[in-house]
Design a protein that fits this description.
Number of helices: 15
Strand order of the largest sheet: 1-5-4-3-2
Radius of gyration: 18 Å
Shape: globular
Number of strands: 7
CATH class of the largest domain: Mainly Alpha
Distance between the termini: 43 Å
Structural class: alpha+beta
């Protein structure tokens, strides 16, 4: 089944593909072709490979036979199709240091993790590990516990993850402490519920996550921003200080930038980190 996907302009599918190619966190779950990207999602206890393809100046989503139609919405959310990136660009007017980042990434929408279940596991794996180490551990997890979707692997749904025991996860990733923490985090996130995390005031959602054993300030921010696309706040700007100093030099000022970007601060950090990497500064 093919469905059209609306994208809010400016939107660049080339930027989307470039980001996914460069992002090690989803390599076992996504594939990039010349004119398409495919992501693996779980639904109904199995994996589904969902393809987004360029079509004129828009996109189509291709669902396998029998796939739930809701996966089209999930695929659109994955690539931030409806994000209002123009709001970030308006805030960036007059920010001379940031203009090369805007120029380099123009039209890039926020590519999230492939669902709340994905970031709930990933945020534990990335603690005290390099991106390459995290990617290897995640691949082992998905090989053992994920759902096959063609050549890809889908992260099990949150309820499935919450039913896994520590021993099964430890056997997959060969790391007892992280297995224990993954179990605690996915169960805690499942108990809070995706609906609350999406719709509650940011402070309330953040506080609820911080009450989950194994979730610290950076993990909570990652779940809300990189998992659910919540850009309205970012309470851990100091975690982006290295990229900030590379782009802004001596003008780096967290408080001033937080005031300038306001409810676009999460989108700004996404562009900041991505831009610093691609510009090679």
């Amino acid at each position: 089944m093919k469905l059209a996907i609306a994208t809010r302009k400016p939107f660049s599918f080339e930027q989307t593909k470039t980001f996914i190619r460069r992002f090690p966190g989803c390599q076992a779950q996504a594939a990039v072709g010349d004119d398409a990207v495919t992501g693996a999602f779980s639904a109904g206890g199995r994996g589904w490979a969902v393809t987004l393809r360029a079509c004129g100046d828009g996109l189509t989503v291709e669902l396998p036979a029998g796939a739930p139609s809701a996966l089209a919405t999930r695929a659109a959310e994955w690539i931030g199709a409806d994000d209002d990136v123009e709001a970030l660009y308006v805030r960036a007017q007059g920010d001379r240091a940031f203009q090369p980042v805007i120029a380099k990434l123009h039209g890039l929408h926020h590519v999230r993790f492939l669902g709340l279940e994905d970031i709930a596991v990933h945020c534990v794996m990335m603690q005290r590990q390099s991106p390459a180490q995290t990617a290897r551990m995640k691949r082992r997890f998905l090989d053992a516990l994920g759902h096959r979707a063609g050549d890809l692997h889908a992260m099990p749904e949150l309820a499935e993850l919450a039913d896994l025991d520590v021993e099964a996860i430890e056997k997959a990733i060969k790391h007892r402490a992280k297995a224990e923490r993954i179990t605690a985090v996915v169960r805690g996130v499942a108990q809070i519920g995706e609906g609350f995390l999406r719709t509650a005031a940011y402070g309330d959602a953040n506080a609820a996550l911080l009450d989950v054993p194994g979730v610290g300030p950076f993990s909570a921010t990652a779940i809300l921003l990189r998992g659910l696309g919540r850009h309205d706040e970012n309470p851990v700007l100091e975690m982006f200080a290295d990229e900030g100093r590379l782009i802004y030099g001596a003008a780096w000022n967290e408080a001033a930038l937080a005031r300038r970007y306001g409810d676009q601060i999460g989108y700004w950090t996404y562009y900041l980190k991505t831009g610093a990497a691609q510009l090679g500064v």
